[in-house]
Amino acid sequence: MNTEGPRSVVFGTKRPLHHGVPVGTTQPDGLVERMQSGDLDAFEEFFNTYKRPVYTTALAITRDPFLAEEILQDCFVKAYRVRERLRTDVSPLPWLQRVTTNLCYSRIARRRAIMEPLTTLITNVVADLTSRPEQVAESREIIEVLQRGIDALPPKQQTAVILYYLHGYSLAEAAEIADCNVGTMKSRLHYALKALRALLPVERRATAPGVRLAADELP
Amino acid sequence: MSCRNVSRALLERFRFGELDADCDAYLAHVERCRNCQDEIAIDRELAERLRRALRERVTGFEPSPAVWRAVRLQAADPEPPGRWSALVVSLSRGMRVMVPAAALMLAAVLAWSQPATDDGPSLLSPLASRMQWQEQLSETASVAEPEHEIKVIPSPSIQLPVPSGEMAYAELVTSIKLPTGTPTTGGVIR
Fold first, then answer.
1. What is the DSSP string of A6-37?
2. Is A80 at the interface with chain B, CB within 8 A?
3. Is position A121 within any domain?
4. Are A90 and A46 members of one domain?
5. Which of A9, A123, B27, B67 has fewest C-beta within 10 Å?
6. Nearest to residue A151, comparing CAs of A167, A162, A166?
7. Taking residues B46-56, what's their average pLDDT?
8. Nearest C-alpha of chain A: how many angstroms from B75?
9. Angle value at C-alpha B187, between B183 and B188, nearest 5 degrees
10. Are A101 and A25 in the same domain?
11. Does some domain include residue A184?
12. A72/A135 same-domain check
């Protein structure tokens, strides 16, 4: 006899948030527990520990430092408000990154149209200040094409590229953050690279001198 | 094994560093295939440039210290209501205004469509009630012809004197000439 009744959805039921696999960032001992007890100093430590990767993700997606700060703020306010549901046995970073990407894509649609000219200006100025002249001369054109290509990627592929190539998360970690399986993450990365490669000028798609796969690179 | 069969699986294995014993067949093909070697090299170069482009987006930026102050300030606030509770609250606020307004409108419509009659309130529909009321109105509005001729009294022609100098009120009143037969009461023209 089946003793289980029909499943019912109860609104407001608290469920534990799954952070997924641990990531490289170390979590200070008992930090989340202290935060859960309402310790604001612990919350400040939590913020300082994880603000950089969260801000980096937001900035890489939005390309707008002001919007990235707003998203960083909203992400940690949300984390504090749901602190009772945060798991203490794994790093909260994958959960924070997932919240960040969701916040980015929910806001980017209504902000991008307004902020694009300013963002482009800021990005160009910063790039010019931080890059060496020989680097600018070497690959400015390709980098600009790639920047536009990254912006044009579908959100899921864009997130995959940022998590894997910018943060250096493993496939499993990136898949956990993006809430998909590893095969799907591979597929998103494949199609993202394919789309980006198609944007490059034909002469740039050919192998450049010195980048040909050497025979000794083969295992 | 053709390049077409090799391409994606091979690229992904090189891309994600998943070369193991199962890759021997792929590697044997790559060792003698110039096109596949080029594909892998281009993929590596693209990945490296992609990393550079992404780093360029975030290099030189740091979140402002003001962010933490804002986070702390907001975190100290009580949690805002959720989506469902916010919806219920807004609906209840709306109902406070809408229910009396709807009741008022209903009362106005009923009053308009239901004329006051001596035989109590009508249970007819508003339209039928209105039609019936209009019929009754047309019947009662018809005036019977008088049996004798009504004498029309001409309106008094009042000739007001031109004010000249200081005219006393009594003089002004007595100087007004009324036609013969105009009813007067104590000097007040009716």
1. -----TT---PPP--S--SS---TTHHHHHHT
2. yes
3. no
4. yes
5. A9
6. A162
7. 93
8. 5
9. 70
10. yes
11. yes
12. no
User: What is the domain-level CATH number for residue A199?
Assistant: 1.10.10.10
Q: Which domain holds residue A182?
A: 131-203
Residues A141, A81, single domain; the answer is: no
- The pLDDT tens digits of the residues spanning A13-59 come to 333 433 333 455 556 678 888 988 888 899 999 999 999 999 999 99
Of the partner residues B8, B16, B58, the one whose CB lies closest to the CB of residue A56 = B58
Provide the residue type at B88 as one letter: V
Closest of B48, B34, B39 to residue B12, by C-alpha: B39
**pLDDT tens string A101-121:** 999 999 876 665 554 544 454
Is residue A71 within 8 angstroms of chain B, CB to CB?
Answer: no
| φ and ψ at residue B185, rounded to 5 degrees | -135, 105
pLDDT at B104: 87
The confidence band for B61, taking pLDDT boundaries of 50, 70 and 90, is very high
Size of interface A-B (CB pairs under 8 A): 133
Q: Looking at A28-32, B7-11, B153-157, which range is the least confident one?
A: B153-157
Asked whether B15 and A161 are in contact (CB, 8 A), the reply is no
DSSP string, A157-194: HHHHHIIIIIS---HHHHHHHTTS-HHHHHHHHHHHHH
Identify whether A189 is part of a domain.
yes
d(CA A84, CA A70) in angstroms, rounded, equals 23
